[in-house]
Amino acid sequence: MIRFMFMCIFLREVSCMDSLRFLAVGDWGGIPFWPYDTPIETKVAKQMAKVSEMYQSSFNLALGDNFYSNGVTDVDDKRFKETFEDVYHYDSLMNPWYIVAGNHDHYGNASAQIAYTKRSERWNFPDYYYSLNFKIPGGDGVDIIMIDTVLLCGNTDHDIVGDQPHGPENVKVAEDHWAWLDTQLKSSKAEYLLVAGHFPVYSIAEHGPTKCLTNRLKPMLNKYNVTAYFCGHDHNLQHISSSESGWTVDYFVSGAGNIVEDNKSHERDIPAGSLKFFWAKLIDLGGFAVVEATSKNMTMSFVDGFGSTLYSYTMYSRKS
Question: Which class is 2-316 in CATH?
Fold first, then answer.
């Protein structure tokens, strides 16, 4: 943990008060039977709490698959307490959580997760998709566009390993979502523009690139100079950096909050030379992402379940 404080104070030559910091974790949703969590989930939660306390992080992004393996039934489902409240119970994790739904959430009642926003002071899931803006001390800010990749692309088959989305259940709902997303990206003037969803655009693991997103979302990310795309779905940590259309978009998979799977079956399905980092070490008990943004740069670091920094990468303002 001291390594984070060192990074914040000395490597940046600024104090922690001069930056915006947040955590991102995906596929963290426990198990559907007692004890309703896994050793990986509880270990990751403990390390997130330590980082959040020392690093003074402002909020957390939950990147989907919030409740395995069939979501929740209604707003009174005991899983909210057993898999979320009782696991992420630390004082430093009582800051805001911003949620998107994953495929497993849509197998159940995803609208109940939205409704839970009114039950919890820290659970923020106002709609299937929404936008966030955060001020950076001494700078403009960070825009984060939270999207629902199941509404956009359709869901996967629960019983088929590595299955691709089958197309949106409601085409009009999907098209409205795409139109909203285009407007949000086009209008952003932020120094850093992030998009967060569940399905990956690029991944080398079990599910691989999501065809729907590579065909339609990727051109939008390039067109509007998006800084990075954060997702889960594959149960490991990845950084893929792809330079296309004159702009480099960084793709971060942070899907190791509850399960770790070492799978590289789609390594040849991403642009050559674009894989910068891959981690899936079960013995290290999961991992998550830590992001720090200043007016000069944004650094993403992956951290494992023992609090070790696995990898760090720095991105620069869209205005530089």
Answer: alpha beta
